[in-house]
Amino acid sequence: MQRWAAFEMSATVFWQMTGSPCTRWAAEVTAMPYRSNSDLPPSVQAHLPPHAQDIYREAFNHAFAAHVGDPRQEEAAHRIAWAAVKRSYVKVGGSWIGRGGN
Q1: What value, to the nearest 5°, has the Cα angle with vertex 83 and ends 54 and 33?
Q2: Are residues 19 and 55 in the same domain?
Q3: Residue-range definition of the domain harbouring residue 22
Q4: Using CA atoms, how far apart are residues 40 and 36, in angstroms rounded to an integer?
């Protein structure tokens, strides 16, 4: 995760100094990891309880950083995030219920 933080800082500093995004990182900046649950996709926010959103966000951010250079980086990160949620939650009807008291 530290590697991503260093990249994020570099891109942010470049933007502040020049007033425009660094073209070298433009493709990667379009899908930055989520800083908070309010940054998650609306479908995730609308359907998952707050704790499940925490799990999704943390799993996505970790997977996104781990798959740098993969052309399907974002897709893989979303798949991994959903798998992490499903380890702790189960969908019953239209609601996500914690497995074991979550």
Answers
A1: 45
A2: no
A3: 1-30
A4: 7
Burial 70-83 (b: 16+ CB within 10 A, else e): eeebbebbbebbee
Same structural domain, 37 and 65: yes
Give per-residue pLDDT as tens, 39-92.
999 999 999 999 999 999 999 999 999 999 999 999 999 999 999 999 999 999
**pTM, full prediction:** 0.68
Residue type, position 69, single letter = G
CA distances from 46 to 38, 51, 74, 85, 86 (A): 11, 13, 20, 14, 16
Over the stretch 13-39, which tens digit does the pLDDT of each residue have?
544 555 554 444 444 444 568 999 999
- Contacting residues for 52 by C-beta, under 8 A, at least 6 apart: 85, 88, 89, 96, 98, 102
Provide φ and ψ at 25, rounded to 5°.
-105, 5
